[in-house]
Design the sequence.
């Protein structure tokens, strides 16, 4: 590691219509260091990285690369100068092979023909940075790779294009524990090669594991720039201006938990086996497990999307093995999908229409003719208010809302159906810390008013913080249960199959 | 009438803007050419009446496009319906009702098959309805080769009759459009159409039976097309196996829906925009007759307007984002 920074940004400011995205931000990274960039969504991390990579021009401030002034006017210019960004949405072509993707735009040719052999060799060489056993064959279409492997192809491509500064935008968001560990090894390797890594993340554990320096952005300004890695609490305090204790609402008091509402006995389908558990009124039940353990499959089975094929499910004593979401909603079980934009919202339609989708879909066909079901909007507006939805204009497209407010629109949609069981899948994926806290408060309020709440999340601290009881899944089965207050290690041991070492 | 399920926006170039622009061009062109008699109410009504067939078809087409589907079988179904109507009627007044019932039944069967093939067999709607068009056209051409049958004089009043000085056919189009608009804006089914077109996965998870919505939309679309066939039989006095194809009702109904602001991706748009698109096409036709310009130039202008309208919408909505 040398002392001179590989790149340096000084006094960067950037405004968009109506919002000052960045003001007086300085940021730098040296060769062979991992600089963690953290902050809530909307704090300006992505804008800063878009300036570094030539997508935006700063309004004020300047940059240097290797000590020389650097002002890319186009992303290609930044790329050829050695700056690469791995965004969360990959830029790979899913139906082309790994080798083709790695040579995109500079395919080797022999005469007028593509030199397939050179492409394969080039791909092997590019993937060699990951050592042995990465399992990525150059001939495979990218679509057939796991998310983690696709990410490795992205990284390999960046390095093959000569990247010396590599920005990674929440690289572990879609990875399971084992894949994360593998990525950390890759990052270690990059450091050893002398690459300057900028690592954007929300996860404190990763900062401790990887980073050599930390910069915290808040509201477009640097709220902490540290040349060491502080305890997680300190980072979070710099991000939100408060500590973790207030983050999760208090658990249910013993008297608040009522009788079982939903009972599942020996249920299963292609992905699930021997599932038995109860959800109780007034209680938040969390489901933990590694990626692919069956948590989401379980939620989808309960909701009738991929129904159970065997077993018994009852809701308040009545048969509840639903064959479609419509049956589930009618019986009082609703689900907030994990992919808000893909599965939850009609993005181009208005906030109000998105809230009214289900109330309208379940309105009686022949109702009060002076109040046709599609036009009666009073109820949903009250619910929006009750949930403190921040939307300037209920007629604006729902895509203009922040992630937290979008989630509230879906909550309102379901509250209009007066559900008895609410299933939250990844309720806070991609939403900022303050909005997370308000979603947790909403979940607790719903439980307190007598609903049974089920939470499925791959964010372990979230499941542990918000739930009264945690059920752990592994390989399509329920493998254990822990009360609130169990340690993360205990839950992980169950989830990964090392439960034998932990006394339960 | 505000169209509730579509997002209302300020500063938007909507179908109304484009209709006004077209109207201004029309009036100026006619004044400039000195043929002011074409601005008389009678001529305007005549101009609009010539667009009734396209209008009825486009109402159905708009409904399927709103749920992110499409129907290329309307032209063939129009021909088949017109032939079926005139053959069954055979010039006899007593056969009018059976003929109408037979045509509507044909429309329902076609729509149902389209909907089932798209939802249950998961065939892309473009392919499913193209296949349906070829099947219908093939059978039709095998059975008849020219004008077949005849509609009785009384049935022809569907085209030529007037009520309170207004053409019956134009009133009928107005009722069809108003009915469709009421369904889209005021009913659960209408709301579900917008939801399915907006995001089919989200709609399913919101508790909507998306397959039924798509099937019902295709049923309505095919019914509209078969009614158009009835209307054309009334207008021409008989049905021939090429009238739908010659009228290019498949592509033109899609074109007017798109000019009217209905997005091919589904979920946004409405009937009144489509009606504006129909009016624009009617004005172009009339204008070219007045000015006596080559029919090929008309096609060029229509094509240009489709692209320009969609570009105007796209640029308008991008400006809002920035």
Sequence:
């Amino acid at each position: 590691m040398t002392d001179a920074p590989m790149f340096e940004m000084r006094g960067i400011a950037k405004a968009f219509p109506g919002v000052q995205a960045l003001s007086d931000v300085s940021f730098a990274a040296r060769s062979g260091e991992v600089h963690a960039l953290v902050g809530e969504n909307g704090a300006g991390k992505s804008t800063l990285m878009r300036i570094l990579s030539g997508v935006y021009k700063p309004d004020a401030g300047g940059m240097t690369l290797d000590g020389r002034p650097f002002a890319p006017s186009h992303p290609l210019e930044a790329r050829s100068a050695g700056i690469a960004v791995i965004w969360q949405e990959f830029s790979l072509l899913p139906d082309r092979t790994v080798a083709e993707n790695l040579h995109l735009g500079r395919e080797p040719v022999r005469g007028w023909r593509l030199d397939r052999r050179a492409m394969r060799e080039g791909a092997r060489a590019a993937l060699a940075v990951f050592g042995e056993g990465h399992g990525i064959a150059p001939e495979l279409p990218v679509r057939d790779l796991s998310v983690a492997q696709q990410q490795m192809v992205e990284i390999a491509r960046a390095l093959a294009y000569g990247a010396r500064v590599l920005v990674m935008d929440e690289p572990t968001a879609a990875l399971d524990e084992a894949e994360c560990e593998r990525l950390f090894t890759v990052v270690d390797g990059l450091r050893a090669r002398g690459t300057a890594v900028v690592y954007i993340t929300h996860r404190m554990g990763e900062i401790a594991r990887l980073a050599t320096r930390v910069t915290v952005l808040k509201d477009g300004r640097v709220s902490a720039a540290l040349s060491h890695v502080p305890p997680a609490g300190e980072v979070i305090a710099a991000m939100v201006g408060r500590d973790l204790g207030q983050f999760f609402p208090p658990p249910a008091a013993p008297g608040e938990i009522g009788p079982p509402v939903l009972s599942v006995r020996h249920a299963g389908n292609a992905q699930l086996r021997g599932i038995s558990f109860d959800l109780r009124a007034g209680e938040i039940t969390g489901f933990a497990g590694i990626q692919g353990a069956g948590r989401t499959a379980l939620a989808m089975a309960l909701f009738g999307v991929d129904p159970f094929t065997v077993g018994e499910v009852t809701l308040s004593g009545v048969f509840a093995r639903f064959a479609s979401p419509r049956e589930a909603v009618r019986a009082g079980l609703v689900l907030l999908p994990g992919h808000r934009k893909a599965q939850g919202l009609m993005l181009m339609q208005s906030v109000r229409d998105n809230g009214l989708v289900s109330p309208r879909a379940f309105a009686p066909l022949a109702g009060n003719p002076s109040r046709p079901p599609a036009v009666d909007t009073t109820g949903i507006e009250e619910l929006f208010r009750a949930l403190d939805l921040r939307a300037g204009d209920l007629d604006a497209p729902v895509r203009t809302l922040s992630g937290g407010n979008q989630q509230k629109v879906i909550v309102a949609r379901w509250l209009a159906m007066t559900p008895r069981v609410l299933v939250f899948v990844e309720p806070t994926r991609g939403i900022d810390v303050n909005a997370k806290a308000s979603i947790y408060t909403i979940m607790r309020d719903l439980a307190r008013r007598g609903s049974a709440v089920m939470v499925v999340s791959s964010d372990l601290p979230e499941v542990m913080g918000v739930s009264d009881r945690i059920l752990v899944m592994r390989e399509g089965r329920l493998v254990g249960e822990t009360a609130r207050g169990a340690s993360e290690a205990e839950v992980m041991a169950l989830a990964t199959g090392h439960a034998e070492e932990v006394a339960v | 009438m505000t169209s509730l399920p579509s997002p209302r926006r300020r500063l938007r170039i909507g179908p109304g803007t484009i209709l006004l622009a077209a109207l201004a061009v029309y009036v100026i062109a006619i004044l400039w050419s000195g043929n002011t008699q074409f601005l008389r109410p009678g001529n305007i009504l005549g101009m609009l009446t010539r667009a009734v067939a396209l209008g009825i078809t486009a109402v159905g087409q708009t409904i399927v496009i709103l749920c992110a589907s499409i129907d290329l079988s309307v032209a063939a179904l129009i021909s088949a319906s017109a032939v079926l109507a005139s053959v069954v009627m055979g010039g006899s007044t007593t056969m009018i009702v059976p003929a109408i019932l037979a045509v509507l039944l044909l429309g329902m069967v076609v729509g149902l098959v389209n909907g089932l093939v798209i939802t249950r067999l998961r065939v892309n709607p473009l392919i499913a309805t193209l296949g349906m068009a070829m099947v219908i056209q093939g059978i039709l051409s095998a059975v008849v080769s020219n004008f077949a049958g005849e509609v009785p004089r009384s049935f022809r009043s569907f085209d030529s009759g007037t009520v309170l000085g207004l053409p019956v056919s134009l009133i009928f189009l107005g009722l069809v459009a108003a009915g469709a608009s009421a369904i889209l804006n005021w009913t659960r089914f209408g709301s579900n159409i917008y939801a399915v077109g907006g995001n089919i996965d989200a709609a399913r998870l919101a508790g909507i039976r998306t397959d039924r919505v798509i099937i019902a939309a295709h049923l309505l679309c095919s019914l509209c097309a078969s009614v158009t066939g009835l209307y054309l039989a009334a207008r021409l006095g008989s049905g021939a196996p090429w009238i739908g194809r010659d009228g290019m009702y498949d592509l033109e109904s899609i074109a007017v829906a798109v000019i009217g602001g209905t997005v091919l991706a589904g979920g946004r748009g409405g009937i009144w925009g489509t009606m504006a698109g129909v009016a624009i096409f009617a004005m172009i036709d009339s204008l070219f007759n007045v000015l006596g310009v080559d029919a090929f130039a008309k096609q060029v202008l229509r094509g240009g307007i489709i692209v320009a309208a969609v570009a105007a919408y796209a640029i308008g909505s991008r400006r809002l984002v920035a």
